[in-house]
Amino acid sequence: MSGLLPTSTDASSEQEGDPRMFWLDGEDTGELLSSLSSDTARAILMSLHEDPATASEVAGRVDTSLQNARHHLTNLQEAGLVRVADTRYSQKGREMNVYAPSEEPLVVFVGNEERKTSFLDSLKGLVAAVGILGMVSYVVQQLVVTDAVQSEVFPRMADGATGVTGGPLLAPPGLVFFAGGLLVLGLLLVYRRWQRVSTPTV
């Protein structure tokens, strides 16, 4: 009978939701920070960000008892840092929860309301910009890299750069475009930060 039950999972540690903001003095922030006060709890959360796992798997990863792992998982789940992403079964047919990080990244914010709003807008704008950049980079990759380009242009470019036939190929155009876009975004952020710091307040 146990052979008919799923013993693996498709749960993912990817976080696809919008970032959630927490005020330092907010009602829910105390519970969130309390759930992370233990080194073991933080190790469990980092482990789940790498790969979803059951309580027993978590206990083995962070070298703690199963009872302690369940205790921290419950606290992390109540604080909104962890969720039950799936259910699977042991070889003996025992049902087990598969834990993963919350679907939304969490940010604890210290500052006034105006700065919080500005920061959240900037964060959402940055996430959107990186997403758009990734999609455009994919389109660039599909448009530029054809069979003809791979067989004709890249080898000739590589030969000219190394002087040896069959030398290493250049980086994929989509990856180069994406890296360049990230560099531009980074420079813009640094410039905006420098402007805020250098502009005297009235």
From TrEMBL:
Please name the Pfam families in this protein's record.
Answer: HTH_20
- Region Disordered: list its residue ranges: 1-20
Compositional bias (Polar residues)? 1-14
Q: Which UniProt keywords apply?
A: Membrane, Transmembrane, Transmembrane helix
Q: Which GO terms describe its molecular function?
A: DNA-binding transcription factor activity
User: Would the keyword Transmembrane be found if you checked this record's keyword annotation?
Assistant: yes
What is the species listed in this Swiss-Prot or TrEMBL entry? Halomarina oriensis
What CDD domains would the database entry show? Answer: HTH_ARSR
Which parts pass through the membrane?
A: 125-149, 169-191
InterPro entries xrefs:
ArsR-like_HTH (IPR011991), HTH_ArsR_DNA-bd_dom (IPR001845), WH-like_DNA-bd_sf (IPR036388), WH_DNA-bd_sf (IPR036390)
Whether Transmembrane counts among this entry's keywords is yes
Protein name in the entry: Helix-turn-helix domain-containing protein
Q: Which Gene3D superfamilies match?
A: Winged helix-like DNA-binding domain superfamily/Winged helix DNA-binding domain
| Entry-linked PANTHER family | TRANSCRIPTIONAL REGULATORY PROTEIN
Domain HTH arsR-type, first and last residues per copy: 31-115
**Superkingdom of source:** Archaea
